[in-house]
């Protein structure tokens, strides 16, 4: 995660993780932002974007927007908008050969050249979205110069408003050139390359209109009303939805831009939805805020809950509550007649070893 350390996101900033799946770096960025500001986590490929979205849900992240768009589509809508942009670019994966035999079998002598052409277009689109004075961090997990130093040189030649800046992060050698190599025989990890660019000048920041509220939409307003009335039963905290995505009421990040026309999978904190006449809290809500009703469970019970099983509970408990393990909420269940109906997301249940490797950066 050294690339995020170089990016150094701060609370209140607008940050873009352009190639964000499966989400390890995006969750690290959000943690450093302390839930304040805007994190836009994008992934081009739909299947990987779905994994990214599940990981953001699983972590209860409140200030992130997850999108599934081409970099040029975002660049057209959000020019000069972000304080910091991370491009952890898709690459030939040479730095992963020791860890991932699949990366070795997929490699061929034409792959670095093909990757570098794609990377150059991605970083050009990313540069469009950096505001004057902002930072662009480019990283790969490969060894060849074509995708690393030579690509950085090509980028600088085409973008004179950017310059390389020295990299200094604790625990690693300094990189006065602004380009850092991490060698697997010298550090505790795999092979990586990181370059840090600063946009020294450029056009003024374009102010973007915020997300439209659809004030006259009756269905929109009714969903907000029902969910916000239910929140007081679900949470000990005071927090209310301010927007709707599909059939889910959400708390959109502060100063969220107008994303109309883009493919948005997650918009800030998803609060809840209505099925029939029943309002249901969203999984992420239990992780982001303190549930009003908590049910301490054992490790065996927690594992059963994560598999989607029904738990036995005291008969005097009713309504939505959160099973907790060592004080940490696991999600939601609905208590009735001595049983806790499981509301753990189906997409996160019964994770085997193969599914785990998809969901996490390991």
Summarize the structure in short.
This protein is an alpha+beta fold. Helices cover 30% and strands 25% of the residues.
Keywords:
alpha+beta; Rossmann fold; nine-stranded mixed beta sheet; 30% helix; globular; disordered C terminus
Task: Describe the protein in words.
This protein is of the alpha+beta class. It has 2 domains: 2-199, Vaccinia Virus protein VP39 (Rossmann fold, 3-Layer(aba) Sandwich), CATH 3.40.50.150; 218-250 and 271-348, Archaeosine Trna-guanine Transglycosylase, Chain: A, domain 4 (Roll), CATH 2.30.130.60. 30% of the residues lie in helices and 25% in strands. It is built from 11 helices and 19 strands. The protein has helices spanning 2-7, 24-33, 46-58, 71-77, 101-106, 111-128, 149-158, 218-234, 283-288, 299-306, 353-359; strands spanning 14-17, 38-42, 64-67, 82-88, 130-140, 162-164, 179-182, 192-199, 243-245, 248-251, 264-267, 269-275, 278-281, 294-296, 311-312, 319-325, 328-329, 333-336, 339-342. The strands form 3 sheets. Strands 1, 2, 3, 4, 5, 6, 7, 8 and 11 form a 9-stranded mixed sheet that branches. Strands 14, 15, 16, 17, 18 and 19 form a 6-stranded mixed sheet that branches. Strands 9-10-12-13 form a 4-stranded antiparallel sheet. Strand 1, helix 2 and strand 2 (38-42) form a beta-alpha-beta unit. The chain is globular, with a radius of gyration of 22 Å. The model is unreliable at 353-362 (pLDDT under 50).
């Amino acid at each position: 995660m050294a690339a995020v350390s170089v990016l150094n996101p701060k609370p209140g900033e607008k940050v873009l993780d352009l190639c964000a799946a499966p989400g390890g770096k995006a969750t690290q960025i959000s943690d450093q932002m302390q839930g304040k500001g805007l994190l836009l986590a994008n992934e081009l490929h739909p299947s990987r974007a779905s994994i990214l979205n599940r990981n953001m849900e699983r972590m209860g992240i409140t200030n992130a927007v997850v999108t599934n768009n081409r970099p040029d589509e975002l660049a057209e809508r959000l020019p000069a908008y972000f304080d910091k942009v991370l491009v952890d670019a898709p690459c030939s994966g040479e730095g992963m050969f020791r860890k991932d035999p699949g990366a070795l079998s997929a490699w061929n002598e034409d792959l670095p050249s093909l990757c570098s052409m794609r990377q150059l277009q991605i970083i050009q689109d990313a540069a469009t979205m950096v505001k004057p004075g902002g930072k662009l961090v480019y990283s790969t997990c490969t060894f060849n110069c074509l995708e690393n130093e030579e690509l950085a040189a090509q980028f600088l030649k085409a973008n004179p408003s950017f310059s390389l800046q020295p990299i200094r992060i604790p625990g690693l050698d300094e990189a006065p050139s602004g380009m850092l190599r991490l060698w697997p025989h010298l550090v505790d990890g795999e092979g990586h390359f990181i370059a840090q660019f600063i946009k020294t000048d450029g056009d003024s920041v374009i102010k973007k209109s915020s997300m439209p509220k659809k004030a006259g939409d009756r269905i929109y307003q009714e969903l907000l009303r029902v969910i916000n009335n239910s929140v007081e039963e679900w949470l000990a905290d005071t927090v209310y939805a301010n927007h709707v995505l599909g059939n889910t009421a959400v708390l959109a990040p502060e100063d969220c831009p107008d994303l109309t026309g883009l493919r948005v999978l997650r918009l800030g904190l998803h609060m809840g939805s209505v099925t029939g006449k029943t309002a249901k809290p969203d999984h992420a809500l239990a992780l982001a805020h303190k549930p009003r009703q908590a049910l301490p469970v054992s490790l065996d019970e927690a594992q059963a809950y994560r598999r989607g099983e029904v738990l036995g509970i005291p008969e005097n408990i009713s309504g939505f509550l959160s099973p907790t393990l060592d004080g940490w909420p696991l999600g939601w269940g609905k208590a009735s007649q001595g049983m806790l109906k499981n509301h753990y997301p189906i997409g996160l249940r019964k994770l085997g070893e193969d599914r785990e490797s998809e969901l996490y950066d390991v």
